[in-house]
Design goal:
This protein has helices at about 25-30, 55, 65-80, 90-100, 115-135, 155-160, 165, 185-190, 200-210, 240-250, 270-275, 300-310, 330-345, 345-360, 395-405, 425-440; strands at about 35, 40, 50, 105-115, 140-145, 175-180, 220-225, 255, 280-285, 295-300, 370-375, 380-385, 405, 410, 415. By secondary structure, the protein is of the alpha/beta class. A seven-stranded mixed sheet has the order 4-10-9-8-7-5-6, sandwiched between helices. The structure holds 4'-deoxy-4'-aminopyridoxal-5'-phosphate. It comes from Muricoccus roseus.
Amino acid sequence: MNDLAFDTTPNSLEAYWMPFTPNRAWKRDPRFVSRAQGMHYVTPDGRQILDAIAGLWCVNAGHCHPRIVEAIRHQAGQLDYASSFGLGHPAAFEYANRLTEMAPDGFNRVFFAGSGSEAVDTALKLALAHHAIRGEGQRVKLIGRQRSYHGVGFGGLSVAGIGAQRKHYGPLLPGTSHLPHTHDPARNAFSRGRPEHGGIAFAEALEGIIQAQDPSTIAAVIVEPVAGSTGVLVPPVGYLERLREVCDRHNLLLIFDEVVTGFGRLGAPFGSQALGVMPDLICCAKGMTNGAVPMGGVLVNDRVAAGLMSQPEGMAEFMHGYTYSGHPLAAAAALATLQVYQEEGLFQRAADIAGTWEDAVHSLHDVPGVTDIRNIGLLAAIEFGPQEDKPSPARAIAARCFDKGVLIRAAGDSLVLSPPLIVSTDQINEIVETIRWAARAG
Ligand code: PMP
């Protein structure tokens, strides 16, 4: 089949309202890609762009992997859709079995959704339902964290901690509060991996938040194990462990939003395994299908699942779900993706190359304007704080990198990096040297 004829004159760009994009400015200076393979995008005029962000933290096995493409093709010809409400199809059951085999011990059930946002809202509702069926229906309050992103549903937005994204939407869910974020450049700048300072104190702030209200009214705490889109904020040593302890002390569920850290990003199937702390619910999406078909899900531990399954039979155990939960195309793509991850050993590959990655990104420490560098697994952020009253150059640097053939994302003051797990040492060098050039070219 031929490529879609593509008209890029301004009028033909009006109808598509792009998300999280300053549409009018973007459309005066648009950038397109029309193909992709492996580590690269290709622009309509044939330029290769090295993808240093795996699409949007999702294309972990590289673009258009033939096994995944073929699985989607095959499924589309076999069964396009089946209602997820009370009608089964093989791919969703098969994938649920394979996924829970790979998940941490004690996570033997998965509830499917269509995106990360849906996974987060599903997890928040599961937490409330968990308490309600145990006779603690007063536990309805949720605790999130500053500088966290949990998608755009009303629940996820309420627990997330990005003020600018809450603007215009009123008070959102009542009773939500927020932990302090863990970014502490005064003590932890240029840490390699987990920062040394402040972990226990940052986590103990949870105790204060709990004590400021009636602890028996709180349902759950939700955090990203590593905050991704707010600038790759790596948890300091001891932080997640102490959060777990405080949650246990007060019978709160701990939810990890692993939409970014899932599927090998930290060198293990899930961040919980890489970081050695187990939550009660794990939200995932993105790398689940290698980004090829929208899909999300919540892995549920046995304790939460047993409670919900103990209700009288005959009614849905959880009054929740989506038209596209466990969609055949998504399930087939996810199944093929998991096979690719396993057969190509990509999670181990990420673990093996993480040291090279760390050395390469930290080699940028003396580039003019760099104020912090953070990394863990195959994630990194290069921070360019504001200088002499001028805004951070991060966005301009990312734009120059694209023009030079490397796709990087600016998140606030930082460039954020999350290459596909197949990235080579040469490509790591290309990413880092392009940033070095772009920072100096400003
Ligand atoms: N949680 C986290 C941690 C994310 O990074 C994202 C997406 N960047 C989401 C949730 C929302 O996922 P989606 O955009 O698929 O709804």
